[in-house]
Amino acid sequence: MIKEVIVVEGKDDIVAVKNALEAEVIATGGFGYKKKFIQELKAISKRRGLIILTDPDHAGEQIRKDISRNIKGCKHAFLPQGKALKKNDIGVENATKEDIVEAISKARPIITQKREEFSKIDLIELGFIGGANSRNKREEMGDILGIGYANSKQFLNRLNNFGVTREEFLKALERMEGYDR
Question: Domains in the chain and their CATH numbers?
Answer without folding.
Answer: 1-110 (3.40.1360.10), 113-181 (no CATH)
